[in-house]
Each structure stands twice: as structure tokens, then as C-alpha cells.
Amino acid sequence: MSTATAIKNVDAIAIGGFDGMHIGHQHLFRELGEQGAIVVIETGYANLTPGREREYFSHYPVVYYPLDAIRHLDGEGFVAMLSDAFPSLKKLVVGYDFHFGRDRMCSHADLKRLFDGDVVVIEEVCIHNDSVHSHKIRAKIQLGDIRGANSFLGHNYTVRGSVVSGQGIGKTDLFPTINIETEGFLLPKEGVYATLTRIDGDEHYHPSVSFVGHRVTTDGSFAVETHILDGDVVCREHAAISFVDFIRDNRRYDSIDALKAAIALDIKTARNTLQHLSL
Asked: Alpha-carbon distance 269 to 250, whole Å?
């Protein structure tokens, strides 16, 4: 089915920013039915799932509207735009805090007034009495609270990137790593993490230990690199690193040997953390 045909048949859409595609967002998607779609209002600030990353976390088609292209529309104009784009539209799904129209002057109450169809409003989603929001997930990631971030996301926080050359001392003096250059992703606090890594689009997750930060013991350069625990795997183009747990802060060591000993402990910790996961 072509994209145009798929959009023509869409009868329900969820509308929002959806950065992170977290568990709160998933509550919206559950209301869509078989002919649903996701409408992303793209602010340009998404860094949990930048660009088209959102499409990894839903089977629904995703349609993007840059905020700058629609911010001039009033409430009636916004609803008319959606009705024109989705001719079979019968249901809108939004969050309790959804606002739209020029200067965000309209709420879901206005949506119910302006749209000739069903409007479903999803109430606040909380974990341990803490409301789930993308900005809270960002804060947790920046603090290295990967477990907390993942509990809000409903999946492991993942960054993707193209393979780049490293220092060249991994295989000779330390442990071999895959170095990637990410673009647009929020990176976690500098340090070492237990992770799962996918390479070159393969569906298999490799247990791994990953480093994010400046190589303060060697050349001081910034790196995002991952060491695969189950063998010397060749990665040619792309890798995706999914963060499972924080191991330790970035530290400076007095020698390469001391750094290697620390990484060996990191590997042991990562193995213990990951061994009970179903990969």
C-alpha cells in the first residue's frame, strides 16, 4: 500500500510532539485502532527520538508537521488542515495538556468543539506518583539515571550513529570498540554503561559495555564507543546503542594499564547486569 493510500484510509490520529515515544505516548496510540496514524508536531527540539527515530517505536505511519509551518493557524485552520490531509478522519486522540492554534490558545475542549468526530483525551500517566514527561526523561538521562529514564520510556534509551575511527589503541592496548558519531541525540552523563548494541541493522542485540565522554586518560577527545562482550564483531556502517544501566563516572587513570584494569571491571559488571536479560 502506498503512503498516499494509507493516509487516505486513516480514520484516527494521535497528535503531539512524541519525543521519546514514552509510555504516556503509548497510551494515546492504544486508542487508534487498525487504521490509525501518528501526527508529530515537530518543534525541532526533539533529541530523545530526533528526526525519524520515532518510527522505530510504533507500527503506525508517522506524519510530520513542522511547527514553523503551522504556527500561524488558528484553531479552525488547524482542524481544517487535518481534515483535508486525512479525508476519512473520525477520531482525534490527544493528551490532557495538548494545546494548538496560534500562540497555543486552544485546548482539547476547543478541539471537541471544532472537530466533527470523536475526541479522546488521555489523562496524565504516572509512575510512582510521578507524571511521565519528555523533559523529565531528558533530566534523568543527563544525570545518568538510565533505569529511571527507561522506566518512563517503556524501552531502553537508544542512540544511533555512523561508525567512525577511534584512537586506534583499543585492539592493541585496551579492548576493541566500535566508535560511532551520533547526530541529534541527547547523550547521557559522561561515564560507562551496561548496554545492548545492534550493528548494521541486524536485529540481534549484543551485550556490551559502552563509554560516553572525553577520553581523559589518553587524548582527551570525545567518544561514544561500545565494546561487544560476546565476541569480536565487525561493524561496517552503523550501530545502535541501547542503555540499560549506569556503571560508573568518567575518570582519569594514571596509566593505560590502570585504565585497562578499570575497563575489565566494567566488563564484569556489565556481564552481571545483562546476564538475566532475554536477548
From this structure: 15
